[in-house]
Amino acid sequence: MIGLWLEWVKSWVFYWQWSLQECYEAIEIGGNLMDLGIKGKTALVCASSKGLGLGCAEALAEAGVNLVLNARGAEALEAAAERIRLDYGVEVTTIAADIATEAGQKAVLDGVSQIDILVNNAGGPPPGMWHDWDREDFIKALDANMLAPIAMIKALVPAMMERGWGRVVNITSQSVRAPIGVLGLSNSARTGLTGYVAGTSRQVAGKGVTINNLLPGIHATDRADALDGNVVKQRNITLEDARAERAATIPAGRYGTRQEFGAACAFLCSQHAGFIVGQNLLLDGGATNLTM
């Protein structure tokens, strides 16, 4: 009996020694335990000079993906591109243009060749009350947060389908799942995009192309600063107090980071995410209380 017990102990010791050795080898080879399988592919990341778009670009670059970065401001865009080149050693092309406009979309599409991964992103419309907005406000929101992503999908997905592989990730908002009163413009436009993706993603999945949405809650970005600044003006409190109050509403007890968000984006773009189709992934620290 003792002999059998000793053999069992030896087998488990051997197993754990082997498992730890595998981990050490993985770390020595690339510093990561999971190879995303997208090294050498090319991604177009819209609105990527800062914030969540930059977080996605950095995570993809870390996985060995070459990048086409887009944003309106050329100076900030090139600065971000140079940092990524130095940090990750990938090829980075920049195209300064307003992706929310037809002219901007044309400039970006004219400046790219083969795109394997598309990350749609655009700044959110300003907060306000239901009686503040007129038709032009809604048109601007739709152009930036619904029609522009759809235009990029229509332009780039057909070639992905021909090649038999592609990834599209749309950065939307937690308000798609649980509308936020003061973000009525965003609620409307991003929900429209979500409906479009729900149908389209299922039509292209058979050709190896996946389309999914990332729904951010509050992250430490300029967008959060703007929303918190609005609270400061409305309630005459300090920015620190506004941030503390908002963080207290998040079960995680803090704002998210662009690095966390980027890691989720990179996974959805990876070889491991081919069976994830038309989904809406919340990254909000538990702030949106839903059962499904």
Overview of the molecule:
This protein is of the alpha/beta class and 292 residues long. It has nine helices and seven strands; from the N terminus they run αβαβαβαβαβαβαααβ. The chain has helices at 2-30, 51-62, 74-88, 102-110, 135-163, 184-204, 222-235, 239-248, 258-268, and strands at residues 42-45, 66-71, 92-96, 117-120, 166-171, 209-216, 280-283. A seven-stranded parallel β-sheet has the order 3-2-1-4-5-6-7, sandwiched between helices. α2 (51-62) crosses α9 (258-268) and α5 packs parallel to α6 (184-204). The longest helix has 29 residues, at 2-30. The protein is globular and about 55 Å long. The model is unreliable at 12-30 (pLDDT under 50).
Features:
292 residues, alpha/beta, seven-stranded parallel beta sheet, 9 helices
What layout of secondary structure does this protein have?
Elements: H1 2-30, E1 42-45, H2 51-62, E2 66-71, H3 74-88, E3 92-96, H4 102-110, E4 117-120, H5 135-163, E5 166-171, H6 184-204, E6 209-216, H7 222-235, H8 239-248, H9 258-268, E7 280-283
Parallel strand pairs: 1-2, 1-4, 2-3, 4-5, 5-6, 6-7
Helix pairs in contact: 2-3, 2-9, 5-6, 7-8
